[in-house]
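subagent[fold] <- orchestrator: predict structure for attached chain, return tokens only, no commentary.
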Amino acid sequence: MSEDLRKQAHDLDVTVWVGKNGIDAVVDELSDQLDNEKLVKAKFLRSARGTDDTETLAAELADRVDAEVVDTRGHTAVFH
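subagent[fold] -> orchestrator:
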């Protein structure tokens, strides 16, 4: 199932940007989008990452919205 979701996510556009205000600022937005869409792609900007890597931030954000991280590539994560 996960491989199938990765393939579906390939052509998705980024609809959530995590910036200097961190993941707190996008929890509600990501949750709302996941209510309406099967997959949501988020980009973690340099100002959000600080000393954390994308995988760590994506996992924390997924926990906050009760979602699953399907894939992370570079500074982008896909949530299901």
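orchestrator: received. Logging for downstream: The longest strand covers residues 14-18. The first helix runs from residue 2 to 9.
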